[in-house]
Amino acid sequence: MAKRSKSSERWLQRQRKDYFVRQAQKGGHISRAHYKLEQIDQRYRIIKPGQRVLELGAAPGGWTHYLENKLRGGMLIAIDSLPITCGQDTRVVEGMAGDEVVDRKIDDILDGEQLDLVLSDMAPTISGVRAVDQARVMDLADTCFEYCQRWLRLGGVMTVKSFQGEGLDTWVAGLKKSFDKVNVTKPKASRSESREVFVVAMGFGD
Ligand SMILES: C[S@@+](CC[C@H](N)C(=O)[O-])C[C@H]1O[C@@H](n2cnc3c(N)ncnc32)[C@H](O)[C@@H]1O
Q: What fold is seen in the domain 6-204?
């Protein structure tokens, strides 16, 4: 059997110890990410039955599963280039957010309707160079905001993953021109050593 690298061995050990990983396994959830969305939703009440939701960076499907249970009768469009485990009513678009082909497919599915909620848990491929990774995650957050400008209804909500660091404060300040309320939150299920945070922007103006 191939020998594991030290970093993958460390990752495995951390996974075994992690409370939310164990909870996800016990509760039959696809990933520990499930708890991040659950905690954001418990705090801000962003997901309601019947909504039209666009989920960016959906694989492997932890958030998708949570959304399917809460939307009951709404519409969920889930985007990722990797496989998403989901129910048959979820509209999966395979590809990268920001690509024209993906945009056209979203347009076709929405057929002129608007969204209530745009969620992004998109994460860049981590290079290990902090400035590069920060720029990449901010680019993904920009794509998410562009999607809001295109398809989010007035009063709608955006929730997007980012990293604490260069450019985040300025980006959040800019969002306040387009949303009534903007909060930066770190759910308990997000590892304390990670710079990951979520921006929850409510009451879209334009
Ligand atoms: C942290 S994972 C998402 C976990 C997911 N929320 C869950 O609960 O299972 C990040 C995902 O973002 C996806 N991603 C990164 N860039 C993307 C892009 N431009 N468009 C769509 N997905 C992207 C990756 O493929 C990866 O699956």
A: Rossmann fold (3.40.50)
